[in-house]
Target: AB hydrolase-1 domain-containing protein
Amino acid sequence: MALTQPGRVRQLAVLSVGFPGTVFCANPKQRELSWYMLFFQHPEAEALLAADDWALMRQLLGKNSSEAKVQDYIDALSQPGALTAGLSWYRANLDLAALAATKPTLPPAKLNMLVMGLWSDGEAYLTEEGMTASRDVVTGGLFFYKRIEGAGHWMMRDAPAKVNAALADFVGAGLDPDVSMYADLM
Model:
């Protein structure tokens, strides 16, 4: 929406995933980490993830989460329709052409608004380079980047105070015409 309806968006904050046209071609490591997105397209993904007491899901979620958090996710995903709903996000939003691209597919116009990218140091599925490459989609030095320490793939759950503080600072930056005073977010 920020690209297609820029008049409706004053600021944009993105968490973990950088701009779709840059994230997958950031480096070979990102392609390796993204295999699960292709797997989620498989019509039997739900059955395979839930098989053997959710063994595959436990393996996927356990990369940087405690057993208690993994069990919380499995309990939630075990509710009727929950797993399919979660996988449907990937099924609806995965651009196979972007995943296969070896060069960034940048939009014809760049974002001319404040954009902040948040990435967590415990992220197991998305590379930092994929997030920072999003700078190429934003004009005029309006891209701010912040690394959230001590959080994993779901940084909003792992470090809500840090994420909320970063978002609040960023929203405040949009209220001040002198955004240079927020250079510590860069």
Summary: The chain has a mean pLDDT of 84.
